[in-house]
Amino acid sequence: MKPKLAVIGAAGRMGRRIIACAIDADYFEIIAAVECKNHPDFGKDAGQLAGGKVINVPVTTNYPEKADVVIEFALPESSTRTSEFCVETGAALVIGTTGLDNKQKAKIEAAAKKIPIIYGTNMSVGMNVLFALAGKAAAMLGNDYDIEIVEQHHKFKKDAPSGSALILAEKICEATGRDMKNSLVFGREGKDTLRQQGEIGIHAVRAGGIAGRHEVIYSNAGETVTLGHIAHGREGFSQGALRAAQWLIGKKPKLYTMADVLGLS
Could you say which of 153, 171, 214, 229 is catalytic? Predict the structure, then answer.
């Protein structure tokens, strides 16, 4: 019997790709496609909406009675309802929603004491490998190298900088003993913006339909080292989310990461 999957934010860009990839992989049974009220695609078949076959699962506001695993890529305000549903029904939860505030994150942390949860702002396998490498490279190169992070996304992305850019900065700070709060500089403007020793610059680009691009630049007077990741579309993120969901089923209650899924911890 196939594990039962519910997708929250099913009519969004990521939700549709997750459903399309799930149909292609044929590992899960998609039992629910949840979206906000009054969405223009409300009532449509989730499979057809994703560009695939009819699966007889309409886009609605209704959570299912029970699911084995839930994947959410939605607005931050839906995260609390989703985590509460999963706790009530015992479903595992993969959440890739970005822009959560501290209160919403605390709700997820509390829920992870009762159910297994993977929370990550970027589910891409390649991007998570970059997370693992960024801090190691900074530590090996040493304090002589200036570090800048440049992230690029489509013009519809609401939050900036991206959650992934902040994770890259966090990994670098952890590996080099920097205080993250006092080390980050978000863009530069003005006549007196001379670079300070030890700071990490973060720059956000929003344009067109860029799916996602992250670049970490390590540079001194003699050379430049660059680590980066380019998303060609949403395929990599959706495949990573499905891989995480498959891995998570049956795990003990805990807040996991993609690093756990990939054996990078």
Answer: 153
